[in-house]
């Protein structure tokens, strides 16, 4: 049985379904609770009627229900090149935080940023946001219309700041948060440029040797009745296949990439991909540290902003780009709603949250300094992530050199050994 999760402003609710997630549809709903509270969120179901029944079973009075269509892979490619980079969003957030700290009115700050912004998509979005605020919407409501640019975490932090009056502080935190993410991403990307170039060059050279050079040598070896090593036979067969079916190989690779990307974009595929990330020996530990660090940072600022623990957990879960962790955080939040201490719930989830996290949270609960403890957890795991990335960067190049050396050696040995045997025959 697969569970589908729908997000609401005050948390998650989990709906058991027997149909595969990948066959479902996604709907955005507006509803009110029995107490009259407005909820806006998403629910997955096989059709509109089932989605309506799901919401009614959770005692929600439906106001509107709209299908959210997931764009095809071709639109995803177009959107990839027409997107707002994290660096653009970070600069926008930093400048807005600075203007708000200078006590500039929000509409004036947005108008100034709209003139300064270079990215056309972000420029258009800032103009729309400014217009919506002039029309009476709050900043979070205006941002919610541009969810392709601003994440749920970003929007919910703004929403909490509107309630607590900590807008300048929250904007500064978001700018710092985006800057950290950009720095980490840049370090990893820069570290991978040289290895990617080496691997790409090797693939090109190996392709030329296997597809062009080896097929030219095959008749010579056959006429001389030279005994060929097994590796040479494999490479010759591969060369003949590449030479005759190169077009089919290219089409097959492209189709496989499209199918994999489309599958991993689905709900079921996303879960599978997240599980793979966490189970890979080296990257799995690194991603766990990143997720714990993001969660602790989000909890720190949300608790400081006066958000209740359970709601803060649901919002902080959206800083983690992992459906596995989001579902686990939802389970922990439900335990806390049931009366269990947060530290106890985290201790039972030691697979995802190390014992250090639950122990430090327990200290925070006993001393009344939970916010401070989450800050220390975030600082500790930020250092752990930086150290892990530094070690990974240092290991990539020598490891790659060894692997490339072995591959090149095998490639040339498979060609030189038969040539040497051919010389011995003559």
Write a compact overview of the structure shown.
The protein is mainly alpha-helical and 426 residues long. The protein is 73% helix and 9% strand.
Q: Could you outline the blueprint of secondary structure elements for this entry?
A:
Blueprint: E1 2-8, E2 11-17, E3 25-32, E4 38-45, H1 48-57, E5 61-68, H2 73-81, H3 86-101, H4 106-116, H5 120-134, H6 139-144, H7 152-164, H8 167-223, H9 230-265, H10 267-279, H11 281-304, H12 309-316, H13 323-337, H14 342-348, H15 355-367, H16 370-425
Helix pairs in contact: 3-4, 3-8, 4-5, 7-8, 8-9, 8-16, 9-10, 10-11, 11-12, 11-16, 12-13, 14-15, 15-16
Any key phrases for this structure?
426 residues, two-stranded antiparallel sheet, 3-stranded antiparallel β-sheet, Receptor-associated Protein, 9% strand, mainly alpha
Describe this structure in words.
With 426 residues, the chain is mainly alpha-helical. Among the domains are: 2-69, no CATH class; 78-179, Receptor-associated Protein (Up-down Bundle). It has 16 helices and five strands. It has helices at 48-57, 73-81, 86-101, 106-116, 120-134, 139-144, 152-164, 167-223, 230-265, 267-279, 281-304, 309-316, 323-337, 342-348, 355-367, 370-425, and strands at residues 2-8, 11-17, 25-32, 38-45, 61-68. Strand 1 (2-8) and strand 2 (11-17) form a beta hairpin. The protein starts with a strand and ends with a helix. Residues 1-23 and 73-80 have low confidence and may be disordered.
């Amino acid at each position: 049985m697969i569970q589908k999760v729908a997000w609401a402003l005050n948390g998650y609710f989990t709906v058991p379904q027997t149909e595969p997630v990948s066959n479902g549809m996604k709907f955005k709903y507006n509803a009110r609770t029995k107490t009259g509270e407005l909820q806006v969120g998403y629910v997955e179901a096989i059709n509109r009627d089932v989605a309506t029944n799901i919401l009614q079973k959770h005692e929600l009075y439906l106001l509107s229900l709209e299908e959210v269509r997931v764009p095809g892979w071709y639109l995803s490619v177009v959107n990839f090149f027409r997107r707002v980079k994290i660096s653009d969003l970070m600069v926008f957030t930093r400048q807005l935080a600075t203007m708000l700290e200078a006590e500039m009115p929000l509409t004036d700050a947005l108008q100034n940023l709209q003139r300064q912004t270079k990215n056309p998509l972000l420029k258009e979005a800032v103009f729309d946001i400014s217009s919506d605020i002039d029309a009476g919407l709050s900043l979070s409501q205006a941002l919610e219309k541009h969810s392709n640019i601003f994440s749920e975490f970003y929007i919910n932090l703004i929403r909490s700041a509107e309630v607590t009056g900590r807008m300048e502080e929250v904007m500064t935190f978001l700018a710092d948060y985006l800057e950290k993410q950009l720095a980490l991403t840049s370090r990893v990307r820069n570290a991978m440029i040289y290895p990617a170039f080496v691997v790409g060059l090797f693939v090109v050279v190996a392709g030329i040797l296997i597809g062009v050079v080896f097929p030219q040598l095959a008749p010579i070896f056959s006429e001389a009745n030279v005994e060929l090593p097994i590796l040479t036979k494999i490479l010759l067969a591969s060369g003949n296949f590449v030479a005759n079916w190169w077009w089919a190989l290219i089409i097959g690779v492209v189709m496989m990439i499209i199918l994999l990307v489309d599958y991993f974009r689905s709900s079921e595929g996303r879960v599978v991909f997240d599980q793979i990330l966490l189970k890979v020996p080296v990257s799995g530990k690194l991603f766990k540290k990143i997720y714990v660090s993001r969660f602790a940072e989000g909890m720190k600022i949300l608790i400081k902003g006066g958000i209740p623990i359970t709601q803060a957990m649901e919002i902080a879960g959206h800083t983690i780009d992992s459906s596995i962790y989001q579902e686990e955080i939802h389970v922990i939040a439900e335990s806390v709603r049931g009366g269990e201490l947060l530290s106890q719930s985290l201790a039972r989830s030691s697979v995802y949250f190390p014992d250090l996290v639950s122990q430090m949270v327990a200290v925070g609960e006993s001393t009344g300094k939970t916010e401070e403890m989450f800050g220390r957890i975030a600082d500790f795991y930020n250092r752990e992530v930086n150290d892990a990335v530094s070690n990974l960067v240092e290991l990539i190049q020598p490891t790659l050199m060894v692997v490339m050396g072995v591959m090149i050696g095998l490639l040339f040995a498979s060609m030189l050994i038969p040539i040497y045997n051919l010389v011995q025959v003559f």
